[in-house]
Amino acid sequence: MIIKGVEYTKEKLASMVDYAILDPNTQEHQIKEACAIARQYKFKGVHPNPYWVPLVAQELEGTGIETGLVVSFPFGANPTSFKVNEAKELVKMLNKRPGCIDMVTNIGRLKDKDYDLYTKDIAEVVKVGHDAGIEVKAILEVAMLTDDEVRAACECAVKAGVDFVKCSTGRGGNPSIKHVKIMRETVPPEVGVKFSGYGGYNPAQLTIMAIAAGANRLGTRRAPMIIDELEAYYKDLVIE
What residue segments make up the domains of the chain, in order of their start? Predict the structure, then answer.
């Protein structure tokens, strides 16, 4: 599959995927199965709820696959001090193994136009991540925002030093491809865009559209199915 001159092999696509396993009723055997699948496909990371971080990090040890640390998931409405402490505790659980932080931003304060607090909230967690040598993504919940608010959120996140802006937790509504385009146009090239919160549309086709719109990281619980479908039916697709 070639999109705008870039070839996306099965291996390249898998390396862009954060495999999510975030249902509250997830059991230990499901975590271990998810990690085995991630090892098989060589996904970028596995993102569990915080309780399961030590097990995921253990299961992935030596593979280079990241353990995702979800901070203030899924609402982002915790005080900054809570988010910072949660991030620090999760980093400790990694025990210097590969990881990343995906934090939910304070959506209400953004909509209140309290941009200083919104930016500081992100920056404090970014500092924890970068001090530990890991990337930090800011989850914006774009489906809850106007287009201008999406731009403002991206600008604040960039000012706070994030490595990626991310669409959604999947709990606050589903993003559109329009949102991906706005995010990509707003953040500088060195800041990535993560498409997540797929919704009900065909996920393989949505993946193609998101990449064409500028996403360079993908987050989904349907990762294996998406990779297999793209390999089976879209391998020869070319989008100029």
Answer: 2-239
pLDDT value, residue 172: 84
Q: Give the residue-averaged pLDDT of 78-103.
A: 98
Name the CA dihedral angle for 64, 66, 120, 118, rounded to a multiple of 10 degrees: 140
Asked if residue 115 lies in contact with residue 74, where contact means CB atoms within 8 angstroms, the answer is no
Pick the CATH number of 2-239 from 3.20.20.70, 3.30.1490.20, 3.30.565.10, 3.30.830.10: 3.20.20.70
Nearest-CA neighbor of 214 among 130, 170, 129, 154? 154
Max Cα separation, the chain?
Answer: 49
Question: Would you state the pLDDT for residue 200?
Answer: 78
The percent of residues above 70 in pLDDT, for the chain, comes to: 100
Q: Which residues are catalytic?
A: 102, 166, 194
| Confidence (pLDDT) at 139 | 98
Task: Encode burial over 23-46: b for 16+ CB neighbours within 10 A, e otherwise.
Answer: eeeeeeeebeebbeebeebebbbb
CA atoms within 13 A on the CB side of 117: 14
Place of tokens 């608010």: 149
> Would you call the peptide bond into 74 cis, given omega within 30 degrees of 0 as the criterion?
yes
